[in-house]
Write a structure and sequence with these properties.
The protein has 145 residues and is mostly helical. It has a single domain, classed as Rossmann fold (3-Layer(aba) Sandwich), CATH 3.40.50.1010. It is built from seven helices and four strands, in the order βααβααβααβα.
Length: 145
């Protein structure tokens, strides 16, 4: 199973420096990628924050989020349900193992914990620290950061 982080999704929908890489990767993926409900929340907030900072145009946050939701509706992205208590428990374990050495942010840990709880073998992210966290938990990250 391939799970993704918000940095990957932002690149897919938000047109940033990694958009070409993200689109090229998706062209070669036959199965839908999976995420969690954390993805939609963090992605929506990232779009709104980018619009607030004028990194994207006025109204783009709503348009990009609608494109994401359409892909979920059409089955291109699977929002997998997860047990929040189990994800938090796993996140505590990951934090204890990795944060003192790697300086990981809480939401990045939650994303990796959710992917592990879903049985992911591959994790899509453009975040350097999250790549270290994911690979430290034996998830394959296909992008060289």
């Amino acid at each position: 199973m391939i799970c993704c982080d918000t940095s990957f999704l932002f690149s897919v929908y938000g047109n940033d420096g990694n958009t070409e890489i993200a689109h090229a990767f998706l062209k070669n993926v036959r199965a839908p990628i999976s995420g969690s409900l954390f993805n939609e929340f963090e992605l929506a907030n990232a779009f709104r924050l980018a619009e607030f900072r004028r990194l994207i145009g006025k109204g783009d946050s709503s348009r990009f989020l609608e494109q994401y939701r359409q892909d979920v509706h059409d089955g291109r992205i699977l929002e997998q349900p997860c047990n929040l208590a189990e994800v938090i428990k796993k996140a505590h374990e990951l934090s204890a193992r990795h944060t003192l050495r790697g300086g990981h942010r809480g939401f990045d840990i939650l994303q990796v914990a959710a992917a592990l709880e879903q049985g992911a073998t591959e994790f899509l992210t453009f975040d350097h620290l999250q790549t270290k966290l994911a690979t430290g938990e034996n998830l394959k990250v296909p992008f060289a950061i």
